[in-house]
Amino acid sequence: MKLFSTQSLLLAPAFMLLSAAAPRLSTHQPDPITVVKAKKSINLLDKKNASKWRGYNGKILPPDWTISDGMLWMNNEAKPDPAYKGGRDVIFTGQEFEYFELTVDWKIARGGNSGIFYHVKEGYGAPSSISPEYQLIDDENFAQMHPDLKDYNAQFGAKNPEQLQDWQKTGADYAMHPADEAAKVLHPVGQWNSTKIVVAPGRTEYWLNGVKLLSFEPWSADWYARKKAGKWAKSDLYGTLKTGYIGFQYHGSSLWFKNIMVKPL
Question: What distance in Å separates the CA atoms of residue 248 and residue 231, rounded to the nearest whole number?
């Protein structure tokens, strides 16, 4: 989640489509079963792929981001490198994905804020201005640690702007579709959580710790209505790209990611 305009403020392990006809009184044989298998999963942090991570619109992995022992993490406590002038959002440039199942384990620092982007294209100010985002945030502590949230939310007419809105909480399709808070199981700061994002033809799903939090149809009438009514009303390109990179957002806090697996569908 971005607070400032300067930054632009699946389902089972494999999908099987069965086309067998319903039972009927006929001498004809049943229609054959058609099976469509998902492709093999890709480990985005193995030895083959670790070097393919870099900063958005950049050529290297930004300072303070580290890939080691099968983990990608940002140390926000490290002293900044004054020689580095680029942004700190990171993307995996080894392959663009259209339909996929992404699974990743993550944890965030107290009061932290981040997100998982997909269908990312470079050449813009930040991924947040064009790409859908699975929100990652410290639901419990963020608001009290960031009083500037009140002014940010006030511009959207929030009833209680000092509080995180439903579209800003972990598991939400940021600024578009809120997560099912009644079903959500979010482990506290310092503990690992597991996220799954499924992007399939006509359906996108967000999962957290084995629970489906939301499902929507991108580019549907409802999707466009939500876009026009909220934060993205003036962002013409937001969500319009149908293929692209996967990335993680840096937004001022330490972050840890591991077991980053993508299965093209």
Answer: 20
